[in-house]
Amino acid sequence: MARLYLMRHGQTEHNARGILQGGLDSQLTERGVSQARAAASWLREHAANVGAVCSSPLGRARRTLEIACDAHPALASRPSSVDPCLAEQRYGALEGRAVDDLPQDPWKPGEAYRTHGGDTQADSSARIVAGLARIMEAHPGLDVLAVSHGTVMGLFWAASEHDRACPPPPLDNGSILVFEFDGERNVFTYLGARS
Questions:
Q1: Cβ-count burial of 65 within 10 angstroms (0-12 exposed, 13-18 middle, 19+ buried)?
Q2: What is the pLDDT of residues 97-129, one digit of tens each?
Q3: What is the rounded distance in angstroms from the CA atom of residue 36 to the CA atom of residue 41?
Q4: Rounded CA gap, 193 and 5, in Å?
Q5: Residue 125: its H or E element
Q6: Is 11 annotated to bind ligand?
Q7: Single pTM value for the model
Q8: Of 6, 45, 81, 189, which is least packed with CB atoms within 10 Å of its CB?
């Protein structure tokens, strides 16, 4: 069965300052660049047989994928795309504010951000799950590397098949969650993480 390697972008200036990004963007820090390179090394060391790569349309994810491809040239030769299903959840008027000042944990957004013009957790989750299944179906039998965002990864993990007694995996910048995709059942099963 094909595998999905779902990776979080490298650390950004906003991440380092504790600022909620959502649909906003900021540049990768030096640490973020190193995280992208380290993730590419991990893929190479674990003989990930990636047949296609894609990223969120947001600059921090696209830049992370570029750096990973430079560090692991085999990735650069794979079909590449940008897909809106991988974009971070939108938080409306609260984007750009300090995470510590938010009314609700952005990692578990629920419905709280709708009143500020943002997405609901249910809407984001549906978009992410349907989009990643579509990406896998577009590359039958191939492993896919998808570079995305922390909330996207958390929502997708929660929607996947996994041991419900298992705590959520770490979603640090540069982390990778590995899933197996069963195309016949249209189901993703969580296999483990690189943090």
A1: buried
A2: 999 988 777 777 778 788 889 898 899 999 999
A3: 9
A4: 9
A5: helix 121-138
A6: yes
A7: 0.95
A8: 45
